[in-house]
Amino acid sequence: MQLAVQNKKVLVRVDFNVPLNENFEITDDTRMRAALPTLQHILNEGGALIIMSHLGRPQKKKKDDGTINVEKFTLRHVVTHLSSLLNRPVKFCPQTVGEQATQMTSDLQSGEVLVLENTRFQKEESKGDEGFARQLADLADVYVNDAFGTAHRAHASTTTVAQFFSKEEKSFGFLMQKEIENANRVLHNPQRPLTAIIGGAKVSDKILLLERLIDFVDNLIVGGGMAYTFVKANGGDIGDSICELDKLDLANKLEDKAKAKGVKLVLPSDNIIADDFSNDAQRKEVPSDQIPDNWQGLDIGTKSREEFAEIIRTSKTLLWNGPMGVFEMPNFAHGTKYIAQVVADTTQKGAFSLIGGGDSVAAINQMGLADDVSYVSTGGGAMLEFLEGKELPGIKAMES
Ligand code: AMP
After folding, report:
1. Which helix (H) or strand (E) holds 320?
2. From CA 118, how far away is CA 56, in angstroms rounded?
3. CA atoms in the 13 A half-sphere facing the CB of 116
4. What is the arithmetic mean of pLDDT over 232-259?
5. Whose Cα sits closest to atom 15 in ligand 1?
6. How many Å apart are CA 365 and CA 32, to the nearest integer?
7. Ligand 1 test: best mutation among 296, 326, 361, 365, most atoms within 8 Å of CB?
8. Where is pLDDT greater, at 361 or 110?
9. Sorting pLDDT into bands at 50, 70 and 90, what band is 379?
């Protein structure tokens, strides 16, 4: 980060949208920890920190009388924990903008930290409203955006606010930089072979991603629920497996495109099937195109695991987005776990691996493998859009 912050008031947009339990205690502080390098750097360099973030969806979950549920969505919930992470006192302003926010920020000294109230308490936030963004900008001398998870949203605090700072007065934070660098490492000049492993429930969620990947990957492994749309499109029997009938043509087109481009598109050859969508259902292993009626595929089979693993092991760059099955149910998590381990082992042998959003991130974290892969993205939707080749408004706003 090149930005000069000494004796400056630094407005930092972070993603502190952390999960809370019913007592409003933080159950996973990954997002807060991810922002620490940027926050520590600014404090070490003598800046005064004005932190802003959203938390939940207060506009969508208002109380019966139409007012914001402050108790549930206040960013005050993160203050004590942030204070222990930064090892210094943290002040809280019960306003996002307004007289009190102006007063508290103007009183703020170098090395001090102030958290503003949830940006989404203002309905102007998600509209990218200029007036609200200007009020935010007026609180500070410089602006830092480290909220990669919301970079795909053109909101006031992530995008519009940047226009009130010159190029010399704004910067990405370290997290944002890392996310962009790691994604670009896969998208531009990857070491080959480059293999993408795409899973998850639906083809429709990832059409743009699949189409784009075929333009530049060497191997495209498709697992999870979305594979059944491909199997069905090829004339296979998929029983009650999840399938998007309106996407069969698309699946055929994607396979044709892959063939034309010389990309190896690999589907699971066998599956673990179940007679119910339940962890305790009866299980069988069958070829992917021979799933009987009343049965559904919920995981890749043992042969598919090996076939996928062989391709992964010989790759130099790996991109993984989406689980290989319904990994939330332990009996159908084996395929996802197996692939996670192979991705980690291959990374340890020198490959570069990006876990690019989706539930594959949860799988890697649950297995304690986050340190054994090259990079685990913090931005689900944002990373997906970045990989799809879309220009993210939160990134574009910093470049002009
Ligand atoms: P995504 O958020 O796109 O990574 O999708 C993850 C979701 O896909 C998880 O909730 C999985 O349970 C679901 N999923 C993966 N495989 C299957 C399958 N074979 N049948 C139904 N859902 C699946």
Report:
1. strand 317-321
2. 9
3. 35
4. 96
5. 325
6. 16
7. 326
8. 110
9. confident
372 pairs with which residues across the strands?
none
Tokens linked to 392: 């993210």
The strand pair at 194-198 and 237-238 is best described as unpaired
* CA distances for 240 relative to 203, 257, 276, 296, angstroms: 16, 28, 9, 5
Closest C-alpha among 147, 208, 213 to residue 11:
147
Residue 80 has pLDDT above 80, yes or no: yes
Q: How far is the CA of 160 from the centre of ligand 1 (A)?
A: 35
Q: How far is CA 383 from the centre of its chain?
A: 5
Query: What structural domains and CATH numbers belong to the chain?
Result: 9-172 (3.40.50.1260), 181-387 (3.40.50.1260)
Q: Which two tokens stand for residue 101?
A: 């926010």
Of ligand 1's atoms, which has the minimum distance to the CA of residue 325?
16
Q: How far is the CA of 67 from the centre of ligand 1 (A)?
A: 35
- Per the structure block, which two tokens stand in for 349? 């042998």
Which residue numbers are catalytic?
A: 31, 202, 358, 381
Helix (H, G, I), strand (E, B) or coil at 243: coil
Question: Which protein residue has the closest C-alpha to ligand 1 atom 6?
Answer: 200
Residue with tokens 């340190």: 371
The helix-helix angle for 207-216 and 380-387 (nearest 10°) equals 50
Q: pLDDT for 4-27, tens place per residue? A: 999 999 999 999 999 999 999 998
Q: Which of 364, 369, 263, 288 is nearest to 320 (CA)?
A: 364
Q: State the DSSP H helix or E strand holding residue 260, giving kind and residue range, or none if neither.
A: helix 248-261
